[in-house]
Request: fold
Amino acid sequence: MVRTTLNIIRDLIYEADDILTDCIIHDDYRKENSYLRKFSAREKYFRYKTVEKLKKINFQIEKMKGTLPPYFQMMAIYRDQEQKRCSRRWTSPVFDESSIIGLRDDEKKIINWILPPTIAPIKIVIIGMGGLGKTTIAKIIFNHEMIKARFQKKIWVSVSQTVNEESIFKSMLKQLGEDITALDEGQILQKIQMTLLNCSFLLVMDDVWSVADGWWNKLSDGLPKSERHRNAIIITTRDKAVAKEMGVKESQIHHPKILNEQESWSLFTKFAFLPNEEMKLYPELKEVAKNIIRKCQGLPLAIKTISCLLRTKNKSISVWRGICDNFLEELCRRGSEGSVIASLQLSYDELPIRLKNCLLCCSICPEDSNISADWLIRWWVGEGFIEYKEIETAYNYLSELADRCLIEVVKKRDYDGKVHLIKMHDLVRDLIIKIAEDEAFCSSRPNQKIHRLAITESMDLNQLNYYSRLRSLLVQTSCPLQLENKIDMARFNSLRVLDLSYTLLGATSIKELFEWISSLKRLSYLKLTGNNELEKVPRSIGKLKTLEVLIFSLCKNLKQLPVEINSLQKLKILDVRCCPILSLPPGLSKLTNLQELSGFNMSSGCHLHELRCLKQLVVLKIQLTSTSKIQDD
Reply:
């Protein structure tokens, strides 16, 4: 019932957004056609239809009023229980040294940071995604013999998501062997300071999520700053921003690596078999075991979770294959708050909504693929998640997701250091796919309720007849697709984003394709990259008054854009890179909102003076050849 209600609310929000978009389009049309009377029959009909749609939405909201209060009451109870549960989550420095595999380099590096005698105290942070082994590394350091000899006092604090500063302070004082009875917070801090004043100490702050409410500043200010002792603080977190707020230098941030193939195998076999068992006793399981390990992608917690599960199962190839085939479901099983998927879910839950939507977009990208930052950001512009003027903010979003260890930056641009390519760990991707499909946000699998669909080579395009809710339709395959006439795409009246890159049109002509495209009055993003059948863009492109992003890159036979393109007053991005366009149409200066122009060809009769009136232009990518001439006009 709750999920159904939430789905209805989500659909109503989309419907309301469609109504708002239609009102904006209608208002723009009236401004362009000032001869239209304010109370003409057409105007009255539009207002009547809009009112009817709003009445329908209001009626649905009234129907849900009886459903929502019990839901909110239940959510309040759940939040209270969750807060209590989170406050009870804790870690301790106790660990089994014999189970440590693949972390010796991490241990050596951090020990070498801590041990050299200097006056200044040192802060070290260990940053990584959930399940990477941050806490385990901290435990190794905490229990190391050289560390025991180096520091007179050692304190382990489990912080977690729900910070209770009084509990933290009391835990510290208790570990220092002091009585905490009848002490208030100020007295506890003073007692901690006095106890640590004349000794060297190591403080581990494990699983720090936030320092926003000032608890860290209180503690940090209360710690002794004696020059006689070189104290050390080790912090583990998933968020680089937290490390910066806690005053850690960039040079003292450690990023653990995932396990290599050999280390993964060693960890797996250690936990998958009982002490009296060995892998060599079950040679038939070796290949399926390798497949399971491969799915873990070197994440220690994933390997340990799945191997401990297999330890309790029959050593049967059918059983192991079943677990391999249902890998994500096995990792999602409830009953283990420390499971890897539960751990990754915490990272997602902590995201602000602006980052959640942006991250969910990555779920439709193929496994192990490098994702273009430009492609993602242009999609966000087309969807309305960001304005183009906020393009710097969009790159910051990607950096923030990387700082939170939910994506990995593969490559940065040489000329400005901004994110260029990203990728996701397979387990993060699996989680994001599940969330995106549960929320009907996006998918690459057929689902009539989905709002954003990625087309793959295995998909039957005839199924698109039933996808009337789509807001984004994107090609996510390098294989050409045949787009046949029999597909009725006229139902996509809510479409904002359309990407038909590298698509073979079959019996559909370019004219027919653009007749359909030009009927999509809400479309704000059109990408036809790599369409070699496109030689001349039809004049009907001028009907797309809401278009903000237009991409024709790598259309190797495209030689002409129509003058009607100048009527796209909302256009912000025009990309014609690697197209043999002879010249841009006259009147380009009418595109007063154009902010990015890629593929301006200096060797085909185009002149820079044509761009003088584009006051909003901030990105210009010029196409140069050996015959190009750049001169003052």
